[in-house]
Amino acid sequence: MGPVERGLLRQGLRYSLVLRLVVVATVSLVSLLLGTAREPGPATVLVLLFLAWNGYFALRTLRGAPRWLVPVDVALVCALSLLQVWTAPADQSIENTGWVPLAAAIIVVTYPWLVGPCGLVALTLAVILADIAGTAVASPEGWLAAVDLPAAIPIRLWMMAEVALSWGLYRLVRRSARRADQLVARGAQVRRDAAIAAARRADEREYLAALHDTASATLMMVGAGVVSRPESWLADQAARDLTVLGGPTAVTDREADLVALLREVVGHTPLRVHLSGSPALRMRAVDAVMLGHGTREALTNVVRHAGTDRAEVTVSLAGDDDRTVVVEVTDRGRGFDPAEVSAHRYGVAGSLVGRMARIGGRATVRSSPGHGTTVRMECPRDVPPPTDDNVAIIATRFHQGLAWAAVVMNLVILGLLDLPKLLASHEIYRPPAAQYAAMGGFVLVTAFVAVTTLRGRAVGRWRWPLVTLVLGLSALATAGVPPQNRLGYPHWSEGNVGWTVVLLLLDARPLVFVGVLGTSYLLTFAQTALGGDAALSFPAAVNATVIVLAFQLAVGMIAILLRQLAVSTAGVARAEEEVRTAEAVAVQLAQDRVDRYAALAETIVPLLSGLADGTLDPGDQAVRRSCAVEAARMRRLFAEDETVPDPLLHELRACIELAERNGIPVAFAEFGERPPLPTQVRRRLTEASVWALATAQGKVRLTVVGADGTVTVSVVAAAGSEVVPFADGDGVHTSTTMDGGRLWIQSSWQGADVTERSEVTSQLSSPGHDDDERSEEET
């Protein structure tokens, strides 16, 4: 059972109990005040005792009704019906019925929220039989009238009709709630899958950004020879990098002090940094962490490129309402020309700009040669809450369910209750045609509402013309009933015309609904009063009106209740969805981080551990070479992007750019057409090239060839160190050849339909193909 259905059952039960309390108290106390009871003393005692039981029954039911509570309630209602000899009016007749049958009718209307259909039929029959028996005991001479049809129709048949209609209303609205739950759950599943996918992408990007800012920067500095001997700050930095490799610490939406976090970042850099601006600034913790990571990346770039040991970090608020947080990192170093930065550089685009974009902010870099660099990061201090479309879904389903219930009730009342009255009293009306015209008009209006509901539309601009038509038809029908028969059995339109009004005003404001419904009754009573004596006495008219009007008002109030329930249950559904989504995201991200760490544990982790505990010397050539290789592999990892036209070339160019920054000249050429390659295949193909670019002692020639479904990546370089073995796998075969002091490594991948390797591949990739000038021109 979903949150919408649970909310409906809870609120529906509460509302039905309130309806029972109000109506029973109204009809019973009015009867006492008007003094119509045959035995006022015993009648007063019965009223007070039963009202006390009603209150007890409501409280116990709301707290969780025991099984015996409903049977006891039915027994007491039956006992009250059998004791009508005290409570019935002195001039009891079928038209002047006492308050007990009316109270029993509204009580059984509330039972669909408490018992199943079989139990509902049984207890309704028990109450009706007890009412007939009590009427017979109270008025023995009226026994035949009490069971005669159609004389007994006004109360007994109406009681059965109300129970059936109430059960139908309950089933239709509950079915709508269940359907709303299904739609909400389906939407939640779609959003959950999208949230998991988005979280995985965001976590992957943030992990890569953190990896770039930490392990990659550390290994790149060691590999490039920036650090030539063991340093305490390097050991501390390597230790922190190991923590990041295990996966970012989960951050909730709680608040954190950005300035305190930046103070910690500044304290772990070898630079002399001046932190200025706001002394404290609280914001969402996840955004503060993002700004902290961006600041660390900017300071790392100062260490590596700026040629200065000083920097300044400024924190401030911007915007008209100071709701934008700004962090600026400024140095007075050598600077650079941003237009000349390679598109394959991950730092600015991936680590800074991408990170700020993920939290709804932005990052900009201002720099020029000789004038230093300023990195500006902005993000909103608050994040607006997401819109909740569950409210519209639930409200629409509730309205449709209630509208169909009202349509069915109106048609049942018109066809099974009112039409028999009209046909049985045909000779009384003056003229009969007016009655049939009114009946036909009510049916057509109901059909119109049914069609609009079926199409998923509202009555809209037709509401008030139709309301006016209904009131006019009601006045026409009342005028055709002789004055002495008004409010009696032949007056079929009295009260029941209000159901058509209810149908047209289900989505109206409460005051409008009550006002128009009351107007329909006042018009009828005014016509009756002007006509003279009516079929019912004033007390009987009050009782009859209360029992019908209460049910109609109940439906209108249910419409209001359901609109409010849509908002509250949407909030519950959203909260449950957020919990489930958070759990699913956490499980998936945890697994992703375990997988990532496992991939790095054999290569990067030992290097960082050695740098952190001092067992590895950053000045040792073997250590520097290993750090350079791992930094190059991470550079390839950062460059992996399936959206670029040729991911293989994109990744290789990123590694070439890193080698050139370290002073290694690279001649690059590519030939032929290449099919799309999976990520793992691209990693196998480029592994040897990445190693060669990171360890080369001189010029490197790199060639990529695609021919006949085969892709080959070959690299020729001066052998700078002992060649490591490269394992085959994923359809990739790697061969290594030494020719004097030159090393030739070739990695080839063949598609499933390729039977032999293209001859042009061997010719273009062989060590003897030493056309460096052509390669450089191609580059």
TrEMBL record:
SMART domains in the cross-refs: HATPase_c
GO molecular function: ATP binding
Residue ranges crossing the lipid bilayer per the database entry: 12-34, 40-59, 68-86, 98-115, 402-421, 433-452, 501-523, 535-562
Span list, region Disordered: 755-779
Pfam family of the protein (one): HATPase_c
Record's keyword annotation contains Lyase: no
Keyword Nucleotide-binding: yes
Protein name: ATP-binding protein
